[in-house]
Amino acid sequence: MRIVIKVGTSTLAHPSGLLNIRRVEELCKVMSDLENAGHELILVSSGAIGMGIGKLSLKEKPHDIPTKQAAAAVGQCELMYTYDKLFSEYNRTVAQILLNGADIANDERRQNFENTVYRLLQFGVIPIINENDTVATEEIVIGDNDTLGAVVATAVGADLLILLSDIDGLFTSDPHKDENAKLLPIIEDITPEIYAMTGGAVTSLGTGGMHTKLHAAQIATEKGVEMVIANGQDPDILYDIVEGKNIGTRFLAKGEH
Ligand code: GLU
Questions:
Q1: Residue nearest to atom 5 of ligand 1 (CA)
Q2: What number does the ligand 1 atom closest to the CA of 144 have?
Q3: Could you tell me the pTM of the whole model?
Q4: pLDDT tens digits for 226-235?
Q5: At 70, is the secondary structure helix, strand, or coil?
Q6: Which ligand 1 atom minimizes the distance to the CA of 146?
Q7: Half-sphere exposure at residue 163, Cβ-oriented, CA atoms within 13 angstroms
Q8: Would residue 126 be called left, alpha or beta, if left means φ above 0 and alpha means ψ between -120 and 50 degrees?
Q9: Which residue has the higher pLDDT, 101 or 160?
Q10: Residue 173 CB: number of other CB atoms within 10 A?
C-alpha cells in the first residue's frame, strides 16, 4: 500500500517545544519496518515552528509572521536532521519536500512534485513533506498539515492517509469536556451533523483541530483515499491501522483515484 502518514506537533514534541525523543524514535522504527514489509510511505510532518520555538528558547508560540517564519526555518532544519539520523539507523534514506498552495494549484509544479515523489518511492526513499512556512503568505498558504496531508495523498494516489494526533479519533462531542463522548469508529458520509460535533479543539503548539481533520477527510475520501484519525502517542498503532483493524476513526473512500 502507498500510505501518507501525517504527524502533528503535539505528537512530535513535548509541550516545551522540545522533541519527544522516545516517540519520534519509535515512529521512525515502525515506519522503517512497514517499508521493509513492502509498503510505500510518505511522511507529512509538522513541528518546524514548535521545534524552532524550543531551539530558540522562545517563551511562547510567536504571533507575528517573521518570528513564526524564523522559528520554522530553524525548526525545519532540526526536524530533518533528527529524521535523517533516526531513519538511517534502519538503513532508510529520507528526502525533504517543502510545498505551498501555489505549487499544488499550478499544474506544471504539481506534476513536478508528483514526479519527484514517484521517483523517490522507486528509490525506496521516504519523502518527508511540510509546508514551506518561510515563504508562505496568506494567499498561497495551505495553512495546516491535515489539509496538506490530504492534498499530498490525493496527488500521489495514496491508498490510505493516516493522521496521527493527540486524540483517539472523532468523538460525538469533545471528550475533554464530556465524559459521555463516544468514539465514532467508521464514517461513511461527512454530513453537516458530523461537522457540528467538532468543537474546534486546538493544542497550544499545533495549528490543527478536528475541523481541519474533517476537511482533510473530505478532500481525501472524495478522491478515493481512505483516511484514519488515530492517537500518535504510541506509533506502534500504525501496524494495526495498516492491517485494517478497528483503530481510531476510519473515513471510507468514496470517489475513484
Ligand atoms: N507547517 C507547520 C510547522 O511545521 C505546521 C502546520 C500544522 O501543524 O498544521 O510547524
A1: 46
A2: 9
A3: 0.93
A4: 999 999 999 9
A5: helix
A6: 9
A7: 35
A8: beta
A9: 160
A10: 15
pLDDT in tens, 20-58: 999 999 999 999 999 999 999 999 999 999 999 989 999
Mutate to test the pocket of ligand 1, among 130, 137, 163, 165 (most ligand atoms within 8 A of CB): 130
CA distance 73 to 202: 23
pLDDT in the model for residue 208:
54
Residue 175 has φ and ψ, to the nearest 5°, of -65, -15
**Dist. CA 74–CA 58, nearest whole Å:** 12
What is the 167 CA–ligand 1 centroid distance (Å)?
A: 17
Is the model's pLDDT at 225 over the cut of 70? yes
Residue 205 has a pLDDT of 44
Q: Cα separation of 228 and 246, whole Å?
A: 10
Residue 137 pLDDT greater than 80, yes or no: no
Cβ–Cβ under 8 Å, residues 232 and 166:
yes
Do 54 and 16 form a contact (C-beta atoms < 8 A)? Answer: yes
CB 62 near ligand 1, within 6 Å: no
Q: Is the CB of 212 under 6 A from ligand 1?
A: no
Q: Provide the strand spans (E) within 28-84.
A: 40-45
Which amino acid is present at 1? M
